[in-house]
Design a protein that fits this description.
- The protein is an alpha/beta fold and 254 residues long.
- The chain has one domain: 3-Layer(aba) Sandwich (Rossmann fold), CATH 3.40.50.
- Helix 3 links the parallel strand 5 and strand 6.
- The chain is 38% helix and 18% strand.
- The two termini are 25 Å apart.
Length: 254
Amino acid sequence: MDAEIKTEGKFRYLEIGEGSPIIILHGLMGGLSNFKGVTSHFPERGYQVLVPELPIYDMPLVKTTVKNFAKFLEKFIEFKKLDNVIVLGNSLGGHIGLLHAKLFPEMVKALVITGSSGLYESAMGDGYPKRGDYDFIKKKAEDVFYDPAIATKEIVDEVFATVNDRMKLVKTLAIAKSAIRHNMAKDLPAMETPTCIIWGKNDSVTPPNVAEEFHELLPDSDLFWINKCGHAPMMEHPEEFNQILDSWLQERKF
């Protein structure tokens, strides 16, 4: 990635470009590099792209919840003195974005969710405690994508290292359980924030019917599909993802 990670106060983040701010939230096992396609495209389209590193392994265990990450996002937006932001989240990041928009609607002018938790997610299953089994972890990582080759050795090694670090594993399970407990089905119908839903047709973590339910429950949403695509469309099909999002932002005049 071209930009260097900035460290200011308690925040570590990427910041690229100038213009209307897009804040990107990575998933539980994801990182800043998952959004290379987005961070290279949208600054050239007149947007300021910011990607904060979520403190998943830094918060005290009792505070490792979706709600506290939504509050972390609020503090980041205030720290950067931003308003009218567009929040884009994948997986857990989408869930955090949704809850943040519910809690602080005045800060967010648009939401983009892809493979988001918040209604249903099976990313963890019962498998990650088999932490010594590299081949098992490799298979779990590959299952996230339609094309297993996207799960490079670097990605698998990172997941393997995480689940073999006892405290990281405990916090990973804690936030996964918080996400499962924090179902937003009753909240969504009251949320007026315009929302772009971009989903992989072959997502096995948050299946297509989850996207349809988000679309049905959110009052002002548009749903777009990407074929031959799993849980992370911005990684598997970055050009198509960017094209869909770009068109939506222009049509909605964001």
